[in-house]
Queue: 2 jobs
Job 1
Amino acid sequence: MKKKTNWSILIGAAFLMASSAIGPGFLTQTAVFTEQLGASFGFVILLSVVLDAIAQLNIWRIIAVADKPAQDIANQVFPGLGYFLSFLVFLGGLAFNIGNIAGAGLGMNVLFGISTGQGAMISAVIAIGIFVYKEAGKAMDLFAKTMGLLKIGLALFIAYISDPPLAEAAARSINPTQFSFSAVLIIVGGTVGGYITFSGAHRLLDARQTGIDNLRSVNKGALSAIGLASIMRILLFIAALGVVSTGAKLDPGNPAASVFQLASGQLGYKIFGLVIWAAGISSVVGSAYTSISFIKSFHPKILKYNRLITIIFILVSCAIFLLIGKPVKILLAVGAINGLILPIALGVMLLAAYRYKIVSTYKQPLWLTLAGAGVVVIMVYMGYGTILNILQ
């Protein structure tokens, strides 16, 4: 029997994934690589969009058909593999959440002049409030949509104000003069790496929007999520390009803030505060939800106290940030780590697509499998190259 598609949940899942991707690290990465590669960064973005879409479609479809969370699927592929995958995703989610809390705190600092630590604590309380609310799923969907639209709207304004060289950006997006493997790895990792690609799929799972009959809707949700994240990436790219093309130098301590401030003065700086707060707080929600979703099927008590454990996860992230200070330097590194997790996660899902006990009679399109395998190979190759550069 075909399950009725709940479009509100589907769009909420897309926004949850996109909002999880568009965190403080996302803003930092985009500003840094625009300054490094100039208009040629447009090519990296286009390449990453293709890789992102292939990875997302494979993972969302297989989770929807199997009607199980990724860690249970992985354990069926090979006993114990789900625990390993959960360990990687959970640690990656925790590391990202420290940066997300920091970003939200920085946003509060810019907007209201309070300390970053105080802003982080207030933001953590707001995020916790969403999970305390009885209708947490609906609240999370609404929050993700609102924050997603806010970020895109503000980025569009700054992109317009910065007067970017659009013709050059379009030309170099097809015919680049510079390229960086590590940029692709970090950008893909920051968009669909680690916990991020599973956030929307696990939300659909919790809302029972699964099964072969719902695959068309799942496809739309997966591609919508990538589309939303990509729109934001492109807007930030052209905003940053408009700034750096004038010869202006970004502040290495906070390159994303420089883009907004140089484009629109004090108003731009305040807008940056609002954007990075929205990016941080929505990513805190997405990261906490998805990271806990990777362990809640392992024991009945984890499932029973799922909401409480999610709240503790947020509090621990906030406490670590308050103890170690600003983790701005790790945001690029965490993107790379999540990029290294992606080929493992995607490879497991591709194997699962051909296990009858997992997907029953479902037949994964051959082109999607081959494209997914290609993404695994590309990400492994780029990850290997990036690690060699770090070690040299």
Job 2
Amino acid sequence: MANRSPPATFLLFLAAVACGAAAARHNYSDALYKSILFFEGQRSGHLPPSQRISWRRDSALHDGASVGVDLTGGYYDAGDNIKFGFPMAFTTTLLSWSVIDFGHTMTPNHLSDAITAIRWATDYLLKATSIPNTLYVQVGNAFRDHSCWERPEDMDTPRTVYKVDASHPGSDVAGETSAALAAAAIVFRLRDPDYSDRLLQRAVRVFDFADQYRGAYSSSLHNVVCPCYCDFSGYKDELLWGAAWLHKATRRREYREYIKRNEEVLGASDTKHEFGWDNKHAGVNVLISKEVLMGKDDYLRSFKENADDFICSLLPGVSSHPEIQYSPGGLLFKTGGSNMQHVTSLSFLLLAYSNYLSHANSHVPCGASSASPAELRMAAKRQVDYILGDNPMGISYMVGYGNRYPQHIHHRASSLPSLEAHPGRIGCKAGGAYYLSPKPNPNLLIGAVVGGPTNISDIFPDARPIFQQSEPTTYINAPLVGLLAYFSAHPYD
């Protein structure tokens, strides 16, 4: 029998986590409320009377008109004014997964807010998939938009519409969109059955399109989507991801057989030690592992083995993978911009897998040792606490949470005067003065989590021009919603 005791370095890490958590006593419920509220600040289109981030107003009200399709609504993904379909779909999938796995730990108000955030996205995705074998994947010219610093309400850059279709495939973005619609269909199954059915039917149709017309949208629309959201991992992971969510949503044998039949062809073991809007393999393995741990679909056990290896690679003191590092302050670190996207997504997988293991009364084998579900939860909690202020800088990386948080975030609407404060239009280049201003942003984008330290030294300069560190994104917050939901109900777990 394998030794079930984790290595001493990991035990020391966990002891530090436990002491830090007991001392911090974070208000996870307040952080959860704010993490969901952030999505209201990212809304595009007609804003409802219930809009709480009141300095935002209606914007991009004619999106899609140039091609005769209503593409209003949805989310701006970050601090600019473009609607990128690929990260928006991933955001939707992770918000839905957060509710599916952790919605029962939310208060009724938090749960209602989270479901509203999901529906704002799915209403848009239904519009973007309204024509068979066509998916509208972007609204706005990123290069023109990024040459301006202006409010979404003022924006006058081209709202060019881009799509993938049978002649210009995009299996990656279509597979992710199918996953988003299928995951959301589970969320709405009991809450709005008719809407759920509509989402699921559309998910099936979009997946069939993704699978039949295979190809990467980064090839079909290279000059449009690269470098912003170029899919470096290819489209195979999204086909498995879409099939996995359709299997979970429909329980149809055809999707289970699709997954098994394409396991090697689509590279299920190719985790690359990451999970995010680009690479979904780790998410596929964790999602399918739940069924295996429950005693179902045992012939998909290889996915659990992949998940075990991946989860072990994330544990400090256990991992030997050079792609996974930890800063001196304990932050999970991956080279590249916007590190918090990795922190929240990978921590979400740690927490989700810990729950699946708990229900199966199981551990995760890590070589000659193993790790318990509680140890996985503590590793995830350490990352959440770091975000909320338990770090060498003593700063919360969530705007509006705690006494000290980023004041100069890379976000146009937050950094420019609101319409109420400045009713006159602020032109494309006129906004540059606000971009370069040393003053704090005038509008508080409550709940926004910025990219955080992008080197391993735990340093954060809080500088608007350094977008890799100071820009918030929807896909940083989406998995954090699930994490905060769990820890708001289990603050000392």
